[in-house]
Amino acid sequence: MEQINGSVQMEHALLYSFLKASSDCRFRDELQFLQSPRTAFFQGGFYNDDEVELQTDGNRSGHMQNGGLVFDPEVNEEVIRIIAAQLAEIGDQFDKEIKARVVNDLVQHFLNENLSAEEITRRMSEAVEEIVRAIPSDMEKEKAMLVIAMVLTKKIANTMPSLLQHVFSTTVNYISQLHNYIVRMLHE
Hints:
Elements: E1 3-6, H1 7-21, H2 28-31, E2 39-42, E3 45-48, E4 71-76, H3 77-95, H4 100-111, H5 117-134, H6 141-159, H7 164-175, H8 179-187
């Protein structure tokens, strides 16, 4: 079993597994390009495992904060797949509650080259919060935000598959705000 040992890698693996397990995913062919085990999204770009120094004890070096790499205790990849499949089931229930207008507005934001990555993330965050408030649910707010963000990723990529990489990296950065919640969820 492979282990996931970085926060960005954890969010990357969770979102990838969610999309893979989701119903009505019309970009499965494109999705395979996001799976690479040696490359993960980082601040809207990529970093390669080779760019993070391997120490003599086998651990990765460096500990950056505020959007940077932060390596955590290892999490089993199979656990991530199981949790992602459960979240995908919840997402399928929420899917029909998300208005096409919200998705189309986000597609336009992703297509707008004049908007910064921060502005696009802010717009996505606003959309997630608006949807969470509108959907009656007894689940934890963090879980609802996580699922809605991942469902929006699927719906945006279904609308325009060419945006998959951009929306995927934006969502990984967005859900990294929920990292502590994700870690708790994976260890339950």
